[in-house]
């Protein structure tokens, strides 16, 4: 185990069609010595917090139980939507459900084999659900913890490109060269953080891609040096989802109230959890008689392009647990924005919230938000080759365990060695 290691770098929100030589030469060059996966997909919803849990467990949300960036939790005789992002959500989930994730993470599986160290610059929720129960080490600017969720010093960085670069430098020195865990994860905030605040394909977006690429180059250089010293390191570089341009905003909860299907905007009988370009609808038992009417209402709208109920939820990797009744993805377009970047979507807006039209968002089933990238370099992956078979971010965990010589049983994903 000591000489076999896995290094995973996630460039949050980096959609595959922006992996170009002129924008990110280090990531592109990695395919020269590694294997590129050209039909790689995310999970539904295509949001960071759910994707983090899926990468950590190798499972879809139906198995691991984290529904989205926001999630309904039972409260009294109703359902209350919580933001998964803040640090306190993890404890709120445990109080409401008696658990965090339903399936073991890589940190739990590797707890007695040298452990996992995660450096993350995304939201606290996305970082913490790499290891919500404290089996390894998670470092984040809002608070870090070690085994047993023991507090340790937070990362002293900003949530921007400069913070990513500072984090990558510390990661390469402290984690890769000094502490040397079997699995080391570096999760960058860009280009996603910038894409939410800028137009896709615009100068700010392109600069954020270049910054993320510089972090990848630093990690790759460190890994190469360690390999020359005799270590067998599997390097995986990818993203969790893509993004699309916001074309409009729909206040779904307000429409349900106006249709008589939800008592009021703040009622807990029916709850809408926005996932950006998709949404989840929870229906409390006391409103169960409205389920068919809610489904019929949503299906009749021109602002949706997919509605998933019952077996349809299972087909997208979701499960009707915790009063979850329905998922839906918002209407899409392949039209390009002012910078020639194709792909747009309506979003699920919170009632009364000001939404930033024309900027980046994700969460649904659109072809661009469901187009992350993945390249793997190391033993088991022929240099300069391309895999066109469908793969998914849930394949990352079993691939890591396979390289480490450990069992990858009871996962939805499959190891990519030999694919």
Task: Spell out the blueprint of helices and strands.
Layout: E1 4-11, H1 25-33, E2 35-37, E3 40-41, H2 48-57, H3 61-64, E4 70-75, E5 78-83, H4 89-97, H5 106-109, E6 116-120, H6 124-128, E7 137-139, E8 144-146, E9 150-152, H7 161-179, E10 183-188, H8 192-195, H9 203-228, E11 232-238, E12 244-250, H10 252-258, E13 270-274, E14 278-283, H11 291-299, E15 304-309, H12 311-315, E16 324-330, E17 332-336, E18 342-348, E19 360-361, E20 374-377, E21 385-387, E22 391-392, H13 396-403
Parallel strand pairs: 1-10, 1-11, 2-21, 3-22, 6-7, 6-10, 12-18
Antiparallel strand pairs: 2-20, 4-5, 8-9, 11-20, 12-19, 13-14, 14-16, 15-16, 17-18
- How would you state the average pLDDT, rounded? 96
Termini separation comes to 24 Å
Q: What is the count of distinct domains?
A: 2
CATH architecture of the largest domain: 3-Layer(aba) Sandwich
**Largest sheet, described in full?**
8 strands, mixed
Q: Which percent band covers the strand fraction? A: 25-35%
Q: What features would you describe in this structure?
A:
- With 419 residues, the protein is an alpha/beta fold.
- Helix content is 28%, strand content 25%.
- β13 (270-274) and β14 (278-283) form a beta hairpin.
Structural key phrases:
Gyrase A, domain 2, 25% strand, four-stranded mixed β-sheet, 28% helix, 419 residues, Alkaline Phosphatase, subunit A, 2 domains
């Amino acid at each position: 185990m000591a000489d076999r290691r896995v290094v995973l770098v996630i460039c949050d929100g980096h959609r595959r069609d922006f992996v170009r030589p002129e924008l990110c030469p280090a990531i592109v060059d990695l395919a020269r010595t590694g294997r590129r996966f050209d039909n790689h997909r995310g999970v539904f919803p295509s949001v960071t917090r759910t994707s983090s849990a899926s990468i950590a467990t190798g499972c879809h949300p139906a198995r691991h139980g984290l529904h989205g960036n926001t999630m309904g939790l039972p409260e009294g005789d109703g359902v209350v939507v919580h933001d998964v992002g803040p640090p306190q959500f993890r404890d709120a989930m445990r109080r409401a459900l008696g658990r965090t994730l339903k399936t073991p993470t890589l940190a739990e599986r590797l707890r007695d084999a040298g452990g996992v160290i995660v450096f993350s610059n995304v939201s606290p929720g996305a970082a913490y659900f790499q290891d919500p129960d404290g089996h390894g080490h998670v470092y984040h600017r809002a608070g870090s913890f070690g085994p047993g969720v023991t507090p340790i010093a937070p990362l002293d960085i900003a949530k921007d490109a400069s913070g990513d670069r500072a984090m990558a430098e510390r990661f390469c020195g402290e984690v890769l060269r000094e502490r040397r865990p079997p699995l080391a994860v570096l999760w960058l905030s860009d280009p996603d953080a910038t894409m939410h605040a800028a137009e896709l394909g615009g100068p700010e977006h392109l600069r954020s891609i270049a910054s993320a690429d510089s972090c990848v180059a630093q990690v790759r250089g460190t890994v190469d040096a360690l390999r020359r010293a005799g270590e067998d390191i599997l390097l995986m570089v990818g993203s969790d989802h893509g993004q699309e341009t916001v074309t409009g905003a729909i206040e779904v909860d307000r429409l349900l109230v106006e249709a008589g299907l939800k008592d009021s905007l703040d009622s807990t009988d029916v709850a809408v959890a926005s996932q950006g370009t998709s949404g989840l609808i929870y229906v409390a038992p006391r409103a169960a008689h409205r389920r068919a009417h809610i489904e019929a209402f949503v299906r009749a709208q021109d602002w949706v392009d997919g509605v998933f109920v019952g077996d349809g939820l299972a087909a997208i990797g979701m499960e009707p647990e915790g009063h979850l009744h329905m998922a839906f993805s918002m209407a899409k377009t392949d039209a390009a924005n002012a910078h020639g970047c194709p792909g747009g979507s309506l979003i699920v807006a919170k009632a009364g919230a000001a939404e930033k039209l024309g900027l980046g968002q994700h969460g649904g089933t659109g072809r661009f938000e469901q187009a992350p990238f993945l390249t793997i370099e190391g033993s088991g992956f022929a240099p300069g080759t391309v895999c066109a078979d469908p793969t998914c971010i849930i394949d990352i965990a079993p691939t890591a365990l396979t390289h480490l010589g450990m069992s990858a049983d009871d996962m939805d994903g499959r190891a990519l060695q030999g694919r």
